[in-house]
Amino acid sequence: MTAVPERLRVWSLRVALGAGLVLLAFALLESWNDVRTYGGVDLRDKVVFARLLWAGQDPYFAEMRADWPETLIDPYYNTDPIRISVPPTAILPYVPLCNLPYGTQRLIYFALDWAALLGASLLLAHLLRPNRGRGLFLLLALYFFATSYFWRLHVERGQYYGPLLFVLALAAWLLLKADRPRAAGVLLGLSAAVRPTLVVVPLLCWLLKRRAAAGFAAGALALALLASLPLGGVQAWTNYAKAVKLWELQFVDPAAVPKREVSPLPMIVEGTDFRDYLPGKTTNTAVMSQLADLKEFGLPASCIRYAGWLCKALAAGLAAFVFLRAVRGRQGPRAHRGVLALAVLLAFNLDYLLAPMRAGYVDVLLLLPIALLLPWFCSAKVHRGYLLVLLAGLLIGRILNDELGTYYRSYLVMLSLDALALMVLLRCRRVFSPSKP
Q1: Which three-class secondary structure state does DSSP give residue 269?
Q2: pLDDT tens profile 337-351
Q3: Nearest to 46 by CA among 116, 97, 81, 104
Q4: Which residue of 174, 211, 336, 355 has the fewest C-beta atoms within 10 A of its own C-beta?
């Protein structure tokens, strides 16, 4: 009697995966057309910043002019008070290829983006058992990530979150499947060099006595910091700190941002036209951006600035709570999955609270905690409401496909992940015991 439903379940899964692969093929063709049509405005600034660093110039506050060499011109550099606010270590991966023609780099990073997403999806699926969520995860990855508009926008813009997801997924696979904590630690450290909030991942691993992974992560992070010094020196990091403050000020009190004299820059450089780009259909989901919207109700900038400090205090309190609770519930040496899920979720929550800018395409990183927590979502001991909230966020975001959809996808998915993590963290004496779900 049970064989027929099981065969039906397997057949239905195969049909759904087959249809998803067809949609994936169309998404690839559409993305390829985007790369040929649009210039990749976010890739351009990183390539130019890498070239400026390689040339020993300041990439954050350069006085870019139209008479500069085309290879050092970012057409949108003078459109914002600060064009980019990532650390110098996030620019280092672009340095090895920075002197290639821009068109060649555009094609290379297009291929890397898609290879990274598909590779990360397969690695994360391999962390799940076939009867404990692997099929469901592949469906989520296909229908709500790989074929979504926000991923199409990510590739068209030329962002780096796809490769970052792959590095994190490979670290998770090395830690959970291959039992290679040192190699995983190296990748976690390099990820923290690119996305500073991820530094809490090796820190939490250290507190939970995952000393090999944490130690190698610290070493890799230190090496990345040292590698950035020959290019930009300490001055690059000083300017990065100034850039972050100006980014925050731009959202809290734009009138207080210092004005600078700028000259118009050509919109066609290195044979690439940057005048047009794919419609955004996304929004800034950072909490600081939501606070800035309170200005429409007459709230003074000083109050919004205090609210920003309150967000930072909440971030510190959240980190302290998770660290203390995790230390109290120390677990056995093989319970890595819960540690990694808890640490990654903490880092992503800090992104919402601390970063002045969090675009909708950053949500591709949510594939990692979804994969790590999916066994608990599918567990009979966990209320199905958690999974329903997760699916509702993904489905609404896919249907609406606009700013409102970005809000629903981002916040509902994080709500379900946070609620499930908090429930397990408070209920279990051991932190996320992997044998339970």
Answers
A1: strand
A2: 777 888 899 999 999
A3: 97
A4: 211
Tokens 């998404």, located at residue: 27
> pTM for the complete prediction?
0.92
Give me the phi and psi of 414, to 5 degrees please. Answer: -65, -35
Length of the chain: 437
Identity of the amino acid at 340: L
Contact 358, 374 (CB under 8 A): no
Give the side-chain half-sphere CA count within 13 A for 151: 28
Determine how β-strand 268-269 pairs with β-strand 272-273. antiparallel
Q: How far is CA 370 from the centre of its chain?
A: 13
Per residue in 370-406, is it b (16+ CB within 10 Å) or e — as a string?
A: bbbbbbbbbbeebeeebbebbbbbbbbbbeebbeebb
Distance CA 85, CA 36 (A): 27
User: For every residue of 317-383, which 3-state class applies, written as one string?
Assistant: HHHHHHHHHHHHCCCCCCCHHHHHHHHHHHHHHHHHHHCCCCCHHHHHHHHHHHHHHHHHHCCCCCC
Positions in the chain whose pLDDT score sits under 50: 1-4, 332-334, 429, 431-437
